[in-house]
From TrEMBL:
The keyword Protein biosynthesis applies. Belongs to the IF-3 family. InterPro entries: T_IF-3_C_sf (IPR036788), T_IF-3_N_sf (IPR036787), Translation_initiation_fac_3 (IPR001288), Translation_initiation_fac_3_N (IPR019814). This is IF3M factor. It comes from Lanius ludovicianus.
């Protein structure tokens, strides 16, 4: 069973599959071909093979230049940054404006702990009577 590919990048010459679906650098489908044929195309054009989807049969590879690979890595990093991180929630704290100093100190310590744990903190202060 082939190892899972963690990062997006050139796979070089290590291709665990016999038959691949290859896409040209322009995005045109070159169809299914044997691993040796794909490597020959890669060498002829001075390109690199990149795994796009391995959960399909046959797995999809694309011929790319180093610049295209770099741009794609930047796009994926940007998308990953934009998506909300799991485990980072929003904490909400509400207290009265007539809160005792002791209670206020306790709550500020709690807020500091949440911020250290990278939570978003929302503080609501209600006006006393």
């Amino acid at each position: 069973q082939p190892k899972r590919k963690a990062a997006f990048g050139s796979v070089g010459r290590r291709i665990p599959y016999r038959v691949l679906h290859v896409i040209s650098q322009d995005g045109e489908s070159l169809g299914n071909m044997h691993r040796a044929e794909a490597l020959r195309l890669m060498d002829e054009h001075g390109l690199k093979l990149v795994l796009l989807r391995e959960n399909v049969e046959p797995p999809v590879y694309r011929l790319m230049t180093g610049q295209q690979i770099h741009e794609e890595q930047l796009k994926r990093a940007e998308k990953k940054k934009a998506s909300p991180k799991p485990g980072v929630g929003q904490k909400e704290l509400s207290f009265s404006s007539a809160i005792a100093k002791n209670d206020l100190d306790t709550k500020t310590k709690q807020i500091a702990q949440w911020i250290e744990k990278k939570h978003h903190v929302k503080v609501t202060i209600r006006q006393a009577k």
